[in-house]
Amino acid sequence: GQSLEQPSEVTAVEGAIVQINCTYQTSGFYGLSWYQQHDGGAPTFLSYNALDGLEETGRFSSFLSRSDSYGYLLLQELQMKDSASYFCAASTYNQGGKLIFGQGTELSVKP
Amino acid sequence: DGGITQSPKYLFRKEGQNVTLSCEQNLNHDAMYWYRQDPGQGLRLIYYSQIVNDFQKGDIAEGYSVSREKKESFPLTVTSAQKNPTAFYLCASSGQAFSYEQYFGPGTRLTVT
User: Fold this and answer.
1) Chain B closest-CA separation from residue A5 CA (Å)
2) Which residues does residue A13 pair with via DSSP β-bridges, in sequence order?
3) Mind listing the pLDDT tens digit for each residue in A37-70?
4) What CA–CA distance (Å, rounded) separates A17 from A4?
5) Which residue from A32, A48, B65, B111 has the fewest beta carbons nearer than 10 Å?
6) Within 10 Å of residue B99's Cβ, how many Cβ atoms?
7) pLDDT tens sequence across B26-82
8) Per-position DSSP letters for A40-62, written without gaps between them
């Protein structure tokens, strides 16, 4: 089947760095996206990797390794407002190119 | 302001009733999607539409129906055939079909008792 695995919860302190991992098993894979969702809110797009390597967008970076079927989201200089759920999503050539979402990682940032 | 609106934010219905969730976008996007989110779960695709007057089933379409008569609007009907309709429903759009960057509405939390 098609699946993405993420840790269910991660806790970190303000100012620290945290890494949220995502391993995927999808046929027709062509890219990995990351979305942030605050409790009860709309998911918002953070980052996308189509090629191996690191993409940096301000305090957030995302990494992809196609050979390992693995990616991660790196959040630096954590702030309280970063407490949210983070989803990885795989883009696929199959089934019309739909996004397949992971279960989400709930990040709690402590003072 | 461009964006996606969903209404209402909270909706309560009795079992056996059909209910329609609204989704409107003014982003001029061709593609629109409906997702379902259950507690502690990822998003699961219900239906999607790539152009007006066309739509396709997603992974969990049973018990749901949609229409796409206008580019801006993609309403979702949760029918009485949906066995477990209580969930958080999210509508999204993108400039092209299945872009990795989708724009989401604020969601409708449906409770059926």
Assistant:
1) 11
2) A110
3) 998 899 999 999 999 999 998 999 999 999 999 9
4) 23
5) B111
6) 19
7) 999 999 999 999 988 889 999 999 999 999 999 999 999 999 999 999 999 999 989
8) TS--EEEEEESSSEEEEETTEEE
